[in-house]
Amino acid sequence: MADWSDELRRARKRLEEAEGYLDLAGLRRRRTELEVEMGRPDLWEDTSRGQRVSREYGQVNADVELLDGLEARLADVDTLLELLREADAEEAAALGVEAGDELARAGAELDRLELRSLFTGDHDEGDAVCEIHAKDGGTDAQDWAEMMLRMYQRWADRRGFEVELDEVSPGQEAGILSATFIIRGRYANGLLASERGVHRLVRMSPFDAQARRQTSFATFSAVPFLEEAGEVGIDEKDLRIDTYRSQGAGGQHVNVTDSAVRITHLPTGIVVAVQNERSQFQNKAKAMQILAARIAEQAREERAAEMEALAGPKKMVGWGSQIRSYVLAPYQQVKDHRSDHETGNVTAVLDGDLDPFMEAYLRWRRAGGDVAAG
User: Fold this and answer.
1) What is the tens place of the pLDDT at every residue in 124-144?
2) Where are the beta strands (DSSP E) in 285-360?
């Protein structure tokens, strides 16, 4: 009895903290404002505006309902504990089990809410433009890049996120040289911040006739996706736009027309290629969105570099700068070299079980780990 009461008090305290960092009062006000917007007859005259309002309302309403639902669940537990005080031994046992189950479910919801407190960036709640590039390791690295693409697609599926594959460059013998894709889902960009950097794979090479152990590398990057390319000022005179025939699968239209688009931003040297939309116009529009996202991220990185330079010299990072190692031989292990989170279940990780690594990174970052590592 005392244990359940203590557990309930801890859950109430966690809920009170969640209502604070999620600003429940502000969420209620914003929901009311959005309800007014949703009721406007001209809302969908501008489709993009209608989509933004509808999406924000869904997210805000879901947050309010989740917090209210947790409050109601804990109130039910309180009622169960009151009944338990008056119950005989047999009834008390059943009520105790029910109270414990309710508290466990509430605790799992609170765990997910507390993860939200770890997001600190302005664009953490939004979608992400992602890129994978094969690096050192030849054919093995290209195969590893394709394995990583599959891993992030599986991760997105697990979370109910949408993946838009915009461009894939096939490898010379196997795998891929690079891939560009957008992951759409709430907090996709904030979660994928943990994945930016060099990923190392160690395994017995399937491309080596002597089956020797091979170390290969691929990089992953993620930047916030901007729905409107106009949010970043891009001068058309600064662009070189090339069209070419799409590669790989994509249907008859993709294979027989020069519908793929490559845009080079001359001042920064940023290159974006998109080939998987149905027309050259659509490919260009998507490429401009991705270009805007990358230019905005480069500007943020330059500002951060300026601040770091003012703060003083940093420790140099050498060859071992990979963020995570995936070892398939001679033993099985995936280890993050920042948070030190690790697991022996490599298969699960390659099948998209990345959430524990992401959460461990976010907690490490909040504790100042990224500063200490610099």
Assistant:
1) 999 999 999 999 999 999 999
2) 324-327, 333-336, 342-343
